[in-house]
């Protein structure tokens, strides 16, 4: 019998992780590289790109970076064509790039709402659409969409984000339904509250040095009693990118320290 660890090997695979200059994307891309994949990533600024390339190099990873806004279909098609030439046809796509705007709904402009939907929902459609034909030709493919607690739950101020991440859950199921017969698995990862630049404002210390009330709220709401760290997403990303998950399709794997299982601390 084969060693089960072979099931998790990504040797010879080409992976594109969007928005992997830092944060969760960087950790997942590093994990895929450590399992053997060649890594392509994109971001929007040269400054972020240079910093990220230096950080990957420190880990001994030869990642290839592309300047590309994932909401621009022409830029995405050009990037995917460049990756085909530079590294080979993409086997694994992680739709990670995302933003949040925390604004009460009645104060949010329609343009602000659209911008969040554009990056968090339309872009995964655009990038998936660009890579699926290559995956069909290769006879296999893995697409991992980075969803959220807000794929399941609402809260004050995040209407656009929740609408986008709820939609992304359904896009995930639809890609699985539409392309499963081509040996393409499309799954989601739903991170809980993870300490990254995106959530930094929710963890800022108060003037008197005490915890931000939202920080205390999240610790109380999480059975693990801590924020997640980007490294918590490494194992789940490798699992869903590898042959170990070949019969897992249309699933959202919540990596949340138990938040969705918990009613919350009793008063
Ligand atoms: P982050 O620290 O803010 O990083 C976001 C990344 O996305 C950056 O590399 C950014 O690059 C890139 N990006 C944003 N818009 C882009 C665009 N239009 N085109 C290309 N790249 C773009 O966020 P994170 O916390 O690591 O989150 C990563 C993903 O996980 C997001 O989808 C987020 O919604 C999701 N998530 C986060 C948490 C959490 O608690 N942190 C929980 C659940 C889900 P540039 O700045 O260079 O553009
Ligand atoms: C917020 C947060 C989140 C998350 C995440 C939870 O303001 O509530 O930023 O929405 O970061 O997506 O899974």
What features would you describe in this structure?
There is one protein chain. With 267 residues, the chain is an alpha/beta fold. Helices cover 40% and strands 14% of the residues. It has helices at 23-34, 46-58, 73-86, 110-138, 159-179, 213-221, 234-241; strands spanning 14-18, 38-43, 64-67, 92-95, 141-146, 184-191, 252-255. A seven-stranded parallel beta sheet has the order 3-2-1-4-5-6-7, with helices on both faces. The protein is globular. The model has no long low-confidence stretch (mean pLDDT 97). Residues 18-19, 21-25, 42-45, 48, 69-71, 96-99, 119, 146, 148, 191, 193-194, 196-199 line the site of NADP nicotinamide-adenine-dinucleotide phosphate.
CATH superfamily: NAD(P)-binding Rossmann-like Domain
The description of the largest β-sheet is: 7 strands, parallel
CATH class: Alpha Beta
CATH architecture: 3-Layer(aba) Sandwich
- The quaternary structure here is single chain
Structural class designation: alpha/beta
Q: How many β-strand stretches?
A: 7
> Uncertain regions: pLDDT < 50 for 5+ in a row?
none
Determine the CATH topology.
Answer: Rossmann fold
> Whole-number average pLDDT?
97
Strand content: 5-15%
What percent of the residues sit in helical stretches (DSSP H or I)? 25-40%
Order of helices and strands: EHEHEHEHEHEHHE
C-alpha Rg, in Å? 18 Å
What form results from the Cα inertia axes? globular
Structural domains: how many: 1
Number of helices: 7
Distance between the termini: 53 Å
Record the strand order, biggest sheet: 3-2-1-4-5-6-7
